[in-house]
Specification:
Blueprint (H helix, E strand, L loop, with lengths): L5 H9 L3 H7 L11 H19 L5 E2 L5 H13 L4 E3 L3 E3 L2 E3 L3 E4 L5 E6 L5 E2 L10 E2 L1 H16 L7 E5 L5 E5 L12 H16 L19 H10 L11 H11 L4 H5 L3 H13 L11 H17 L3 E2 L10 E10 L4 E11 L2 E8 L5 H16 L6 E5 L3 H12 L6 H9 L3 E3 H8 E2 L7 H7 L11 H14 L2 H27 L1
Parallel strand pairs: 1-2, 6-9, 12-15, 15-16
Antiparallel strand pairs: 2-5, 3-4, 5-6, 7-8, 9-10, 11-17, 12-13, 13-14
Helix pairs in contact: 1-5, 1-6, 5-6, 13-14, 16-18, 17-18
The structure holds iron/sulfur cluster (SF4).
Iron/sulfur cluster binds next to helix 2 and helix 7.
């Protein structure tokens, strides 16, 4: 029996194709080793769960045995009104759920509780007074447990609880609307997701891979990439995601890059207008004229001309100090551990870094302060800073909130507002196009001939190494992170030079 489980619902939210591929994809193409970063998250989740459970005095432990045995014992325990059940198994028809805890309420029904090593809600901002909203994947998981409890006769409410990374108990009202502007409740959302998952698990419905950022952490990455390349899928083109691809496939019956390149944008827009007039508002929904034209241009460069293009002159400052800047941080712990700068001046090149050696606020603050002291030591008005994507800027604004005595918000903002502090990602997207499917720094610098010293460079691995370093204090691991960060900074330099040459 292919059960609908919490992890299947989670997978579907991450990637709608994953559920089908896990069940029916070419298993020999699936990478067997777990990605080290995924493993790190997994280990952290397990440790957090152990820590929370160790603080509970008494509970009925049903974590051992086969699913069937555990299911029978869970039902027995609930009939016997056990106050708290750990790792009980709930099964009904084609649904299976294992809530971390089941807590008996005064009316003898049970509340599902899951322990998570992330925040209980997303988008919370204490200073702005914003509480944040439930996370989709937590909500659907709680819905599954709740539905199972109802079907088994042990629940009459629409709630569930998440115990988050701080040990806070966050209650989810599953009958509430998903958001202020949403017309859908969490239950309705869950029902839709569950239906899709059910169809995919039964092979009654198949869907296609779509190249996206999430794929890099997925064991199917090479397999799906191969499929996308062989079928000349539209998601090979930078910024054409799954939903646009599906719309174009279905509404225009255009599947491959060869056909896509031949599309006449004006004609397509006339067709869209005609469909709209006849009441079909879904036709090419959210596919606008400009984005379609851009996608076709990119498809042509990727698939036919295979040469990068610059749309006009790219003016970058001529200064005595050029800094290529990149930070390393662990978003799972909201910790910035490295600020790296590759410096190019008339006197030569050098790598400068400010690195935390411990996981503490003092250490995070110390290295950030040193970074700003370094910036102040530069010849003012005669330096330029290059970085890639808004991550550095948003992270620095977050750090400013945490350590307001290091630097004021105005100073951070005016630093990034300077014309000589340049986000090359914006330059790349606005002024150029490239014959590659991703405009990540790695993809662009590699295209320009740069190679990292590490064979498998990735930010996710850097996080894993840093956590290893914290545990072992092994300097060779720290050096690996430094090399990786230095190479990222150098890659930014290679990209800057590549843009100038273009
Ligand atoms: S590689 Fe990407 S498309 Fe394929 S299953 Fe994984 S996340 Fe989905």
């Amino acid at each position: 029996m292919k059960y609908i489980t919490a992890s299947k619902l989670y997978d579907f939210i991450q990637c709608p194709h994953r559920v089908w591929r896990d069940a029916y994809g070419p298993q020999e193409e699936k990478i067997k080793e777990t990605n080290p970063f995924v493993e790190l998250l997994w280990d952290r989740g397990v440790k957090h769960e152990e820590n929370i459970v160790s603080q509970i005095d008494t509970y009925e432990d049903i974590s051992e045995g086969s699913h069937e045995e555990r299911f029978a014992r869970t039902i027995e325990a609930m009939k016997n009104k056990a106050p708290l059940i750990y790792q009980g198994v709930l099964i009904h028809e084609n649904m299976l759920g294992i809530p971390d805890l089941l807590k008996k309420l005064p009316d003898d029904t049970y509340m599902p509780i899951d322990i998570k090593s992330g925040m209980g809600v997303e988008g919370a901002d204490e200073e702005a007074g914003e509480e944040g909203k439930p996370k989709k994947h937590y909500a659907v998981q709680l819905c599954l447990y709740n539905e199972l409890l109802k079907k088994l006769g042990f629940c009459s409410h629409d709630n569930g609880v998440i115990i988050d990374i701080h040990g806070d108990h966050v209650e989810y009202d599953l009958s509430a609307l998903m958001g202020l502007r949403s017309k859908q409740t969490w239950w309705e959302f869950y029902e839709t997701i569950k239906k899709h998952v059910e169809f995919l698990l039964n092979n009654q419905h198949q869907n296609k891979p779509a190249m996206a950022g999430i794929c890099k952490l997925c064991p199917w990455y090479s397999s799906c990439k191969k499929w996308c390349e062989q079928s000349k899928d539209l998601t090979n083109v930078f910024y054409v995601g799954r939903s646009n691809r599906d719309r174009i496939n279905e509404d225009l019956l255009v599947e491959s890059l060869d056909e896509f390149i031949e599309l006449d944008v004006e004609e397509v827009m006339k067709q869209k207008e005609a469909e709209k007039k006849s009441g079909n508002k879904e036709f090419l929904y959210r596919v606008g004229k400009d984005s379609l034209a851009k996608a076709i241009t990119r498809a042509n460069i990727l698939h036919r001309t295979k040469k990068p293009v610059s749309y006009g002159a790219i003016d970058l400052p001529e200064v005595s100090h050029e800094l290529f800047f990149d930070i390393e941080d662990d978003p799972t712990q909201d910790f910035v551990y490295m600020h790296g700068v590759y410096e190019r001046t008339v006197n030569g090149e050098r790598f400068v870094h400010f690195t935390a050696k411990e996981l503490s606020d003092e250490e995070e603050k110390r290295v950030w302060q040193e970074f700003w002291q370094y910036i102040e030591s530069l010849p003012q008005d005669d330096y330029a800073v290059y970085y890639y994507s808004h991550h550095e800027e948003t992270t620095y604004k977050r750090l400013q909130k945490r350590y307001p005595d290091v630097i004021s918000l105005e100073a951070v903002e005016s630093f990034y507002d300077q014309p000589n502090v340049i986000d090359l990602y914006k330059t790349v997207c606005k002024q150029t196009d490239w014959p590659i499917g991703s405009y990540s720094l790695k993809a662009l610098a590699t295209y320009l001939g740069f190679s990292w010293r590490d064979e498998t460079p990735s930010g996710a691995l850097s996080i894993q190494w840093f956590n290893e370093y914290l545990e072992t204090k092994d300097e060779t691991i720290l050096n690996r992170i430094l090399e990786y960060n230095e190479d990222d900074c150098k890659a930014t330099m290679v990209l800057k030079d590549g843009l100038v040459n273009l």
